[in-house]
Design a protein that fits this description.
The structure is a single chain. The chain is α/β, with parallel strands linked by helices and about 375 residues long. It contains 13 helices and twelve strands. It has two domains: about 120 residues, Aspartate Aminotransferase, domain 1 (Alpha-Beta Complex), CATH 3.90.1150; about 220 residues, Type I PLP-dependent aspartate aminotransferase-like (Major domain) (Aspartate Aminotransferase, domain 2). The protein has a seven-stranded mixed sheet, sandwiched between helices. Strands 1-11-12-10-9 form a five-stranded mixed sheet. Strand 9 and strand 10 form a beta hairpin. The chain is globular. Bound molecules: pyridoxal-5'-phosphate. Pyridoxal-5'-phosphate binds next to helix 4.
């Protein structure tokens, strides 16, 4: 007896954890900083921590009221109907629900490359196919309706990531509107705003609601998560905001009790903790500007809580940084073997990452110069 043919499926490669790296290098975990998974350097909202503590003794009950309360709070925030909010086990869970609700076997989604691996993985689980549209290092990973439409061939979902992981580029609401306008009635445009809080842009929920001068649309959905700005990655809480016509599909595709009691209570506390989100966003904005200025390599402009840097040999640089105690993301698995992604840390963490990276780049430069000199010496002088 075997599982079905999973040879097309690839395992998700998460950023490496401190424990894992420290054990491998036989070092004290407390001497490392991890800036590899775009987590919140300030930890969870203190209000959420308190709510989790308070909820601990009541986790013997299934979550019902908490789920309804959180959905109501989120609906309020985006001025949509509660049934348009699809709560899920992380943003990843919401990606699954959208695919479940959309894809017939063999139907396709269109995703950015480089891009977030889980769109494709999830579509495969749901017997879907994947097509890609390219984003290019040469024009700073610019995202435009025109370029995406060039690759578009009637896919059921077009995935946009704004801000984009791993580059930090964004797409404007008018471009998203144009894309939705020019794709067929059978296509849903989903805007993944996992890093939306960090960007200086309006949420694409404006297109669903018809806010800010846009006509209300029934072919756009938005994905959001509590993992990044709210610092709740470990609790697994995210959601999709879907068109009104889609609302009822949720009850047909969701896992019973899609988000846990702890997650819902933490989310409810965190969503009102503006102070923590503001501090988080401010730290990220300063850190990403500082990294662009101070790193001795090309760093792309980013609207997320991370930056992408062109370091030449990502595997070598990430490895050397790790040995010096700073864990960053080697972007080879994104198809960018020359780039690393560095999460914005606290001021001290970001400073250490910049100093470490610049040291590593200088050392590697010396080594290459040395190698070049050796190579030259071997050239016969005839
Ligand atoms: C982190 C992330 C998500 C969702 O993460 P969850 O922890 O599952 O909420 C979704 N999209 C992108 C691009 C991300 O980087």
């Amino acid at each position: 007896m075997q599982p079905r043919d999973l040879s097309d499926h690839v395992a998700y490669e998460a950023g490496r954890g401190i424990e894992e790296v420290a054990r491998e290098l036989d070092r004290d975990p407390s001497t490392f900083v991890k800036l590899a998974s775009n987590e919140n350097p300030h930890g969870p909202s203190p209000a959420a921590t308190e709510a989790i503590r308070e909820t601990a003794s009541s986790v013997s009950s299934y979550p019902k009221a908490a789920h309804a309360d959180l959905v109501a709070a989120i609906a309020d925030r985006w001025t949509v109907e509660p049934k348009q909010v699809w709560l899920a086990n992380g943003g990843d869970g919401a990606i699954d629900y959208l695919h479940r609700a959309t894809l017939e076997p063999g139907e396709s989604i269109l995703v950015p490359t480089p891009g977030f691996a889980y769109y494709g993985m999830s579509a495969r689980f749901h017997h879907g196919e994947i097509s890609e549209y390219p984003l290019s290092t040469d024009d700073d990973f610019a995202q435009s309706a025109e370029d995406i439409l060039e690759a578009y061939d009637g896919e059921r979902i077009v995935w946009l990531t704004s801000p984009h992981n791993p580059s930090g580029s964004t797409i404007s609401l008018s471009e998203i509107e144009r894309l939705a306008e020019e794709t067929t009635d059978e296509t849903l445009v989903v805007v993944d705003e996992a890093y939306g809080e960090f960007a200086d842009r309006e949420s694409a929920t404006a297109l669903l609601e018809g806010r800010d001068g846009f006509d209300a649309r029934d072919d756009v959905a938005v994905l959001r998560t509590f993992s990044k700005a709210y610092g709740l990655a470990g609790i697994r809480l995210g959601y999709a905001v879907v068109p009104e016509a889609w609302a009822d599909a949720y009850t047909r595709v969701n896992t019973p009790f899609a988000a846990s009691e702890l997650a819902c209570r933490a989310g409810l506390a965190a969503i009102d903790d503006d102070e923590h989100v503001d501090l988080t966003v401010e730290t990220a904005r300063e850190a990403r500007e500082y990294m662009r200025e101070a790193i001795d390599a090309h760093v792309w402009p980013s609207e997320g809580n991370f930056v992408l840097a062109d370091v030449g040999d990502a595997a070598a640089v990430a490895d050397a940084m790790q040995r010096r105690g700073v864990i960053v993301r080697d972007c080879s698995s994104f198809g960018l073997p020359e780039c690393i992604r560095i999460t914005c840390g606290t001021d001290a963490e970001t400073n250490r990452a910049v100093d470490t990276l610049n040291e590593v780049l200088a050392d590697l430069d010396l080594e290459t110069d040395g190698a070049d000199a050796d190579a030259e010496r071997e050239v016969p002088d005839t």
